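Need tokens for this chain, all 159 residues.
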Amino acid sequence: MARRGREPSPLQQEAARGYALRALGRREHSARELEHKLARAGLDETAADEVVQELGVAGWQSDARYAGLLVRSRIGQGYGPLRISAELSSRGVDAALIHSALAEAEPDWSSVIRKVYERRYDAAPESTKERASRYRFLAARGFTSDQIRGVMQGLPEDD
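Here are the structure tokens for all 159 residues:
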């Protein structure tokens, strides 16, 4: 995408490495995200891949570390395992790393979903329609059907 009618000048390898390190200094990035950033800045795809691999070998970039940080952050924000997995997958993190990061976090999903539910709702649902709405809300947050049923089982039945 050109700005003001000009094509961005391609980054040299060292400049690309510096750019990537500054990006990693601000926050963790998955390898795919970092490659995409470098490509947007004007580095060709092959060179971007080389820079990211070099940073990975040096320990500056790690998809496992990125996944672990994102999992803990999203659990703290009240998201469920399905949503977290989908987000990591969309950012190019391998399925095995996603599974590992979720297992390492050892969340008590029933506690997480209960906190989300109690923060959002202070009274029992008054109708089947309201109950279904709450179910959809929790599903959109990424909780499984079993987790949602578990938190909603203790609620009084609707009229």
